[in-house]
Amino acid sequence: MGLATPAAAHVLVQPVGAYTLTSGRLWTVVAALLGLPGVVIGGLALARSAGRIGADTGRKRAIVALVAGLACMVIGGLVVAAAEGGPGTGYGIVGGFVDLAIGLIAAVLGGLALARSRHTA
């Protein structure tokens, strides 16, 4: 019985494979799928808001980019906060930090485009 406990503990601490999709990694992928289109839409909204063509759609795009960026940051932050280990443990902490950066970029682009659309309207 004394040998069973260390053996069971060793099984619980096995490293996760690089291509294993854990729940933390899955959530970081979901957040990235929200944030990356937010960056693209925010860039398009910012480019459109420079001219006055399509100001209404530029404002809608800016709001979509802002919301997508905030959602990406929230999910990434939750993954980072819930991670119990560092990189390579399967908790998705690296992806969470990437999502925080992507979400910040999308939110800033959306916010800038929204602010610019208010000034031109």
TrEMBL record:
<feature type="transmembrane region" description="Helical">
    <location>
        <begin position="28"/>
        <end position="50"/>
    </location>
</feature>
<dbReference type="InterPro" id="IPR045770">
    <property type="entry name" value="DUF6223"/>
</dbReference>
<feature type="transmembrane region" description="Helical">
    <location>
        <begin position="62"/>
        <end position="83"/>
    </location>
</feature>
<protein>
    <submittedName>
        <fullName>DUF6223 family protein</fullName>
    </submittedName>
</protein>
<keyword id="KW-1133">Transmembrane helix</keyword>
<dbReference type="Pfam" id="PF19733">
    <property type="entry name" value="DUF6223"/>
</dbReference>
<keyword id="KW-0472">Membrane</keyword>
<feature type="transmembrane region" description="Helical">
    <location>
        <begin position="89"/>
        <end position="115"/>
    </location>
</feature>
<keyword id="KW-0812">Transmembrane</keyword>
